Amino acid sequence: MMGSFPPLSQIGAVALGGCVGSVCRYLSSHFLAMWLGTTFPYGTLFVNVSGSLWLGFIGTLALNKAGIFDPNTRLLLTTGFAGGFTTFSSLAYETAQLYKGGTLDLALVNMAGNVILGMAGLIAGIYLARLL
Question: What is the pLDDT along the chain (132 residues), one digit of tens a residue?
């Protein structure tokens, strides 16, 4: 029925996946900043590329391998985890900060790197899933 509320099991799956994805995003950014420094937002680049790979892989498996995931697991892994893990809003903010800080070159590298490598990650995830 149009306008009905989704089942609580689906909401719970998205919430749990989002919680885990957000914590993984935070830890990724934290450790990459420790290891590589803070002059460039390496954590955001990493989560956007690896999150694109993840979504390409899991999404393709879910579409091409009927029954591999039940609907709640698919929601947990895609809308929940990938939604909590990837950070487009962080990408936009950090790119603006790089630009405002006078480093247009890094702002452009950040934007292009996230878009190009994110698409490459998505395509790689699709390819890997199709190998199974």
Answer: 568 999 999 999 999 999 999 999 999 999 999 999 999 999 999 999 999 999 999 988 988 888 899 999 999 999 999 999 998 878 888 999 999 999 999 999 999 999 999 999 999 999 999 998
Q: How far is CA 104 from CA 45, 98, 100, 112, 119, in A?
A: 17, 7, 8, 12, 22
Place of tokens 């999150």: 51
Q: Could you list the residue range(s) of the whole structural domain that residue 57 is in?
A: 8-131
Helix 104-131 vs helix 42-64: crossing angle, to nearest 10: 20
Residue 3 within any structural domain of the chain: no
Q: Is 2 part of a structural domain of the chain? A: no
Structural domain contains residue 1: no
- Domain assignment of residue 58, yes or no: yes
